[in-house]
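User: Hello, can you help with two protein structures?

Assistant: Certainly.
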Amino acid sequence: METFNDVISADRLVLVDFFATWCQPCKMMHPVLAQLKETLGDKVRIIKVDVDKYGPTAARYGIQAVPTLMLFRRGQVLWRQSGMASRSDLLAVIRQYL
């Protein structure tokens, strides 16, 4: 079974959405991330981590607000932002690392 560390340690870019099911802005991020995936295809992997289910993982990365988006490659944090992000803003950030 693939672990969180396995996923973020890959050579491929990984965008992690730390979210909570009760968080309204988190729910609003879902279509933005779906559009992003449609645009970028396999260039980036997008995963969602529920902070209530995976508290130790969220704590390890100091997640104090949701949504928090983080971009990883080879286990390294390349970028991080808390709060909503637009598709165009996310594309601009990700394209810097492609």
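That covers the first. Now for the second protein you mentioned:
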Amino acid sequence: MNTHTLPAAVETYFAVIDGDAREKAIDSFAADPHVTDDGSTYRGRDEVLSWLTGAASEWETTSTRLSVNTEGQVITVATRIVGSFPGGQVDLRQEFVLDDEGLIQRLMIAV
């Protein structure tokens, strides 16, 4: 199904990921999450929190949703990221897998 409506955890993630309090996104993640971004995988809440306050916070960014596709507990969001990083713009595919409680169990970010 193609829609721009997102589950609460994913909506919260996007609401804070471009701001100054990216660490608050950890509240959207399950007890034992996995994040894969830029060739690195972060496992567990401590590593994901480290990613949120480190690599994910390295640049100022603004995200625009281009499309959303939901199939069961898998939500794929195509986003355009504009920011202070080299090149200044990139389109990403972010695949969220939710647990039974609707929290982010896995996030895979790819170009």
